[in-house]
Design brief:
Elements: H1 2-5, H2 9-28, H3 37-58, H4 62-68, E1 81-86, H5 98-107, E2 109-110, H6 116-120, E3 127-129, E4 136-142, E5 147-149, E6 152-161, E7 165-170, H7 206-209, H8 214-224, H9 228-236, H10 238-245, E8 252-256, H11 267-275, E9 278-279, H12 285-290, E10 296-298, E11 305-311, E12 318-320, E13 323-332, E14 336-341, H13 348-351
Parallel strand pairs: 1-7, 8-14
Antiparallel strand pairs: 1-2, 3-4, 4-5, 5-6, 6-7, 8-9, 10-11, 11-12, 12-13, 13-14
Helix pairs in contact: 2-5, 3-4, 8-9, 9-11
């Protein structure tokens, strides 16, 4: 009787994948009025998807291969990430709702690119942040040549190792697939506990142990939130900005436009354009809202300030130098805050 109840699983699972295409694509690649940069990176992304899918299929991860190689794209992780593919057998006798499939893939994608060699260099209890609501996965068992994450064995390390993307195969999902575990809705995934360092009060994270700065984390978050153009631009000039940030106390506010519009321009112009979107202090959306109209905001470009316009009748969000904040507090930490804006700020020499 039980086997007959699940005989339709393969059909239902295929239908779930097909119906989930729109939901996942919208999450990974939000629409934007200024989407021209996506045309520049699309060939690389399609090639990456095709090669990764081929490697997964060869390793026996057919379901995951199908997810990565569909038209239109079903799941295209941002650059500098790691994807943990789930073995086909783990889906047997299971039906997955669309929202769960979407969340599952995001939870199996970390914001840091890491080979098996990289992973084995870190102690048990190290955590890695995922694309699913910044929830973590944990290295729960680290041995000389074997690794478990959330108590799930990494069975096929380095299935695919590209310049910007790594895939490892795991025996089971990092979160249960049982029906009774799905009753909590989108909160079914709970981050594991990160083991604290003996010499520090903060939890060990993969980014900390690799000495990856928070600037790099912001680059990764921007890419995963649909601001890939600005993420690429910031990454290209990050060395100078990160070095100079030491002079202003390492805190910053970043205004992220959907399209900077200067990819491919001279490095000096691109650097100045990015810096025009950075303030040398942390200012939350609430704090911006309370500032008087015509308040000047000092950027890290000498002599070029932004101006608070306040809330205008025809724009619901706070307006800075004629540009609306459409995604306030997109990313916040102790020293950083990122706000999504509707378009890029204009540089003085370009408007003269």
């Amino acid at each position: 009787m039980a086997s007959s109840c699940w005989c339709w699983f393969s059909v239902y699972f295929a239908a779930s994948i097909t119906l989930g295409v729109i939901a996942i694509t919208a999450t990974i690649h939000p629409s934007s009025k200024n989407s021209s940069p996506s045309q520049e990176i699309t060939p690389l992304t399609q090639s990456l998807s095709r090669n990764a899918s081929r490697a997964l299929r060869k390793a026996g991860y057919t379901h995951m291969a199908d997810l990565l190689h569909r038209s239109p794209p079903f799941f295209l992780p941002p650059q500098n990430t790691t994807f943990f593919a789930i073995k086909d057998s783990a889906f047997r006798n299971t039906s997955l709702p669309r929202w769960f499939l979407k969340s599952l893939l995001l939870y199996h994608t970390t914001t840091t690119k890491a080979s098996m060699k990289d992973l084995l260099h870190h102690p048990t209890g190290t955590c890695m942040e995922t694309l699913f609501r910044q929830k973590n996965i944990s290295l729960t068992k680290v041995q000389r040549k074997s690794l478990e994450i959330n108590h799930v064995k990494v069975s096929n390390p380095d299935i695919f190792h590209g310049e910007h993307f790594v895939i490892h195969g795991v025996l089971a999902p990092f979160s249960p697939l049982r029906r009774q575990d799905l009753q909590g809705g989108s909160d079914f995934i709970h981050s594991p506990t990160c083991r604290s360092n003996q010499n520090a009060t903060n939890s060990t994270t993969f980014a900390d142990s690799k000495n990856v700065s928070e600037w790099n984390r912001i680059v990764q978050v921007l890419g995963s939130k649909g601001y890939s153009s600005f993420s690429i631009a910031l990454h290209s000039v990050l060395g100078g900005i990160e070095k100079d940030s030491m002079n202003w106390g390492s805190s910053a506010t970043i205004f992220a436009p959907p399209d900077l519009g200067l990819i491919g321009y001279p490095a000096t112009l691109l650097d100045r354009a990015v810096r025009l979107h950075v303030l040398p202090q942390r200012i939350t959306y609430r704090e911006l809202s309370s500032l008087p109209v015509r308040t000047l905001l000092k950027t890290v470009v000498p002599g070029e300030d932004l101006e608070v316009d306040g809330v205008l009748d025809f724009m619901p969000g706070v307006v800075i130098s004629g540009v609306e904040i459409v995604a306030p507090d997109l990313f916040t930490s102790e020293k950083f805050v990122v706000h999504g804006i509707s378009r890029a700020f204009k540089m003085a020499e370009l408007t003269a």
